[in-house]
Amino acid sequence: MNVLLFENGPKVLAPLPIGFAVFIVHLATIPITGTGINPARSLGAAIIYNKDQAWDHHWIFWVGPFAGAALAAFYHQFVLRAGAVKALGSFRSQSHV
């Protein structure tokens, strides 16, 4: 929710884009999950409603965030940070001239 990090913008309007984003996610997921964007809340209902098939479609809510976090950590460590270290190295080599 990067909207809270802008120093120039009005802080009073920050909840609007956050609420709008949650509203859009709810509208998009009504036919898929019944608007269950919180996996902890949705798991109980999935178990009660589909005892035999509760995990068939629910596993992605638990695996997805962990896989996304691992990919983001890899990208940060080996792409973004590697570029910054390379740029810093070229800056240091030019500053001693």
From TrEMBL:
Cellular component annotations (GO), alphabetically ordered: membrane
Q: Name one GO molecular function term.
A: channel activity
Q: Which Pfam families match?
A: MIP
Which terms are listed as keywords in the entry?
Answer: Membrane, Transmembrane, Transmembrane helix, Transport
UniProt keyword Zinc, yes or no: no
Source domain of life: Eukaryota
- The main location is membrane
Q: Does the keyword Secreted apply?
A: no
Regions that span the bilayer: 12-32, 59-80
InterPro entries, per this entry?
Aquaporin-like, Aquaporin_transptr, MIP
Task: Tell me the compartments it is located in.
Answer: Membrane
Provide the membrane topology annotation: Multi-pass membrane protein
Sequence similarity: Belongs to the MIP/aquaporin (TC 1.A.8) family.
Protein's name in the database: Aquaporin
Gene source species: Brassica oleracea var. oleracea
